[in-house]
User: Fold this.
Amino acid sequence: MFRQNDMDQINPYRSYSTCCSRWRILIRGTSDIWSTTKKDRGIERERERRERERERERERERERERERDRERERVRVRERERERERERICSKMSTFTTRIA
Assistant:
């Protein structure tokens, strides 16, 4: 003869005549729901944490890229200044050599 618990394992959804059995099914169902929701919440929290981490990494990468751009611009400005200085010196030299000649 089956015990009540064995019947639960065989078919937990069959209708029971006793109130206690119905409550047990109801409680077991809700605890499954709660544990699932708890797992889902944990998974969701983990997903959000990973997403925030990815976003921080993207922001760091953008900042590095901005810094590289700034450095490139500084180098360009220095080059332009050197070129102007060279041209100024060359024009002075040409003026000087013209006067000598």
The mean pLDDT is 76.
